[in-house]
Each structure stands twice: as structure tokens, then as C-alpha cells.
Design goal:
about 40% helix; about 20% strand; about 120 residues; rod-shaped
């Protein structure tokens, strides 16, 4: 009488082991990356991008309506940073120094008075 696990049919094939290891490694990779939040630098870049969009919209509103428009920022600001921005009907703005923060990083920006756009400050 022949036993069930003798000869060539004993154990797993190399292909079966590789498939199981591949599935396990994909599962671990998905689990490991899904449990981490966004990095501080990516979060800060997202805040800068959102603020640039807010500034462009506030400037456009001031030009279209022909009135002075003030905009209060919702982004996480450093202490002492200008919290409101003022835009004029001619497309200019009151200069402002802005500092966004996402611990442990800070990003300093300046509202250019002539173009009413956010720029990196000169580091000269």
C-alpha cells in the first residue's frame, strides 16, 4: 500500500512557496504604508499649495468686485505671522510675511505687493 505523501508528491513546489511569499510581502507592504500618516514635508507642501489657491481667489475677487478684499488665512501659522491678507482692486496687495508650520518644519513666504502672489523670501 502506498502512503499519501511519498515520492514526488511530498511537500510544496517552489512555485507555490514563491506565490505565498509574494502575497505575504504585498500584504505587509500595504499594511505598513497605510498605518503611517503623511510626512510633515508633504503636509506642509499641501498647506502652501492650498494657501496659493486661496490667495489667487482672494485677489481675483478684489479685482472682479472692484473693492478692497481682506482674507483671513486658515492654514497653520507660526506665532507672529500675518494672519490676514489685504488685496486691492488694481490687483496689488499689502505686503505680508507669512510663516506656515507643520511640526517640526516651517515655511516662510512673502506676499509680493505688486503681483499679489506668494514668493519665497530673499535669503541674501
Amino acid at each position: 500500500m502506498m502512503s499519501c505523501c511519498s515520492g514526488r508528491n511530498a511537500g510544496f513546489s517552489l512555485l507555490e512557496v514563491l506565490v505565498v511569499l509574494g502575497i505575504l510581502s504585498l500584504t505587509i507592504a500595504v499594511f505598513a504604508t497605510s498605518n503611517r500618516g503623511p510626512s510633515p514635508s508633504l503636509e506642509l507642501k499641501a498647506h502652501v499649495s492650498a494657501l496659493q489657491a486661496e490667495v489667487a481667489a482672494a485677489r481675483a475677487t478684489a479685482i472682479i468686485e472692484g473693492t478692497t478684499n481682506t482674507h483671513a488665512m486658515a492654514a497653520p501659522l507660526c506665532p507672529g505671522s500675518d494672519a490676514t491678507l489685504t488685496f486691492f482692486p488694481d490687483g496689488t496687495a499689502q505686503p505680508a510675511d507669512i510663516c506656515l508650520t507643520v511640526e517640526p518644519l516651517d515655511q516662510r513666504l512673502r506676499l509680493d505687493p505688486l503681483t499679489a502672489q506668494l514668493v519665497l523670501p530673499d535669503t541674501r
